[in-house]
Write a structure and sequence with these properties.
There is one protein chain. This protein is of the alpha+beta class. The protein has one domain. It is 64% helix and 14% strand. The chain is built from four helices and four strands. The chain has a four-stranded antiparallel sheet with strand order 1-2-3-4. The chain is elongated and about 60 Å long.
């Protein structure tokens, strides 16, 4: 390989390290927050009012977003875990081809996907505890991993709308 190919390989490796670092931070924050909440609000089950629009409330989610696919049993549990790990691996592999915001989003998505996959392997369901609401309307409970996935997807969309549009003009 010549110097240019060596530099490209080094840059690719650095991008993957940054993605893995961000994913590890998300996983760590997710696991620590879930462990704290398991001790604080799950046993015994109780709700803690934090703000006029925010509670910590114990919710076990056997499915994916909004409880979809909750009736799939062990087969769905392992399929969802395998899918999360496959998505994370794909993001890590492809990160050198992504735009700046896509790379940031990829790290958040990979970390969140792995955080929830760990729950599925440990408990057979995901620990959710963040309850956002307005009066009597409650958004489905979520966790740090879910928030990271959502923010990552938002960054990905912004990249498609902003960075790629800028690159093509």
């Amino acid at each position: 390989m010549d110097n240019t190919e060596d530099q490209i390989a080094a840059d690719d490796c650095a991008m993957r390290r940054r993605l893995l670092t961000l994913a590890a931070i998300v996983i760590g924050l997710d696991l620590v927050s879930k462990q704290v909440m398991l001790a604080l609000i799950f046993d015994p089950p109780r709700r803690i009012e934090v703000l006029p629009f925010l509670n910590f409330a114990p919710v076990w989610n056997p499915g994916i977003s909004f409880g979809m696919l909750a009736d799939g049993g062990d087969v769905m549990r392992y399929l969802l875990t395998a899918l999360a790990l496959a998505v994370a691996a794909w993001l890590i592999w492809k990160v050198p081809q992504f735009q700046r915001l896509e790379r940031l989003g990829a790290g958040l998505i990979a970390g969140g996907a792995i955080g929830n996959a760990i729950d599925r392997l440990r408990f057979g369901k995901v620990v959710d505890f963040i309850d956002v609401y307005v009066q009597t309307w409650h958004w489905p409970a979520f966790n740090i991993a879910d928030a990271a996935i959502t923010i990552g997807a938002g960054l990905w969309i912004c990249s498609i709308l902003v960075e790629r549009e800028t690159d093509s003009s």
